[in-house]
Amino acid sequence: KNIVILISGRGSNMEAVVRAARDQQWPARIAAVISNRADAAGLAFAASHGIATAVVPNKDYATRAEFDAALRTVIDGYAPDLVVLAGFMRILTPEFVDHYAGRMLNIHPSLLPAFPGLATHAQALAAGVPEHGATVHFVTAELDHGPMVAQAAVPVLPDDTVDTLSARVLKQEHELYPRAIRWFVEDRLTIEAGKVVVDDSP
Ligand code: GRF
């Protein structure tokens, strides 16, 4: 299976996926890593691992629809079976999302449905919740609301700051996202009545 990963910055989740795919010999290849920002740090890691990279700068396009159309053309040039959003910081049009229905995953740094949107760690601290975490979900038109594939929880500790809490969550993300993507490439995920069913048999 061909996987295309979209990033906007650091790319540590992309890195975790690239390493897992290689170390665990997934029946899949990372066909390309694509960024909307030329300065995304993750592009260098991908290139140094022999993965094709591309930049589609959103600032070159007057409208979201034009950017999404250009991005879709570049993505589809790699014939992806799965599109992985890994810190890709753009809201996508419904047309784009529909085109990849059932074959686009995102990781969101909260225990959805709690704290959709931005600044999730600050939101969690402000709310005083005892637990926080991350969610992998299929992407649908409504932001951070698609069918959930997997979650990982961490405790919120009394002295936590955004930095300490986000680091604790990120460590879990690097386990969670590769596990969920591996299920996809091994055909273990089905969506039934809007809910994801995982076939976790050996
Ligand atoms: C992660 O926390 C992810 O959950 C969120 O954006 C962050 C991206 O980090 N969507 P990285 O670029 O993968 O290091």
Give a brief rundown of this model.
Helices cover 35% and strands 25% of the residues.
Sum up the structure in keywords.
202 residues, alpha/beta, Rossmann fold, 7-stranded mixed sheet, two-stranded antiparallel ribbon, 6 helices, 35% helix, 25% strand, globular, binds 5-O-phosphono-beta-D-ribofuranosylamine
What does this structure look like?
The protein is of the alpha/beta class and 202 residues long. The chain contains six helices and nine strands; from the N terminus they run βαβαβαβαβαββαββ. The mean pLDDT is 97. The site of 5-O-phosphono-beta-D-ribofuranosylamine (GRF) has 14 residues, from helix 1, strand 5 and helix 6. Belongs to the GART family. Pathway: Purine metabolism; IMP biosynthesis via de novo pathway; N(2)-formyl-N(1)-(5-phospho-D-ribosyl)glycinamide from N(1)-(5-phospho-D-ribosyl)glycinamide (10-formyl THF route): step 1/1. N(1)-(5-phospho-beta-D-ribosyl)glycinamide binds at residues 11-13.
- Nearest-integer average pLDDT: 97
Strand count = 9
Q: What is the radius of gyration? A: 16 Å
Can you give the helix content as a percent range? 25-40%
Look at the helices and sheets and give the structural class.
alpha/beta
- Count of helices? 6
Number of domains: 1
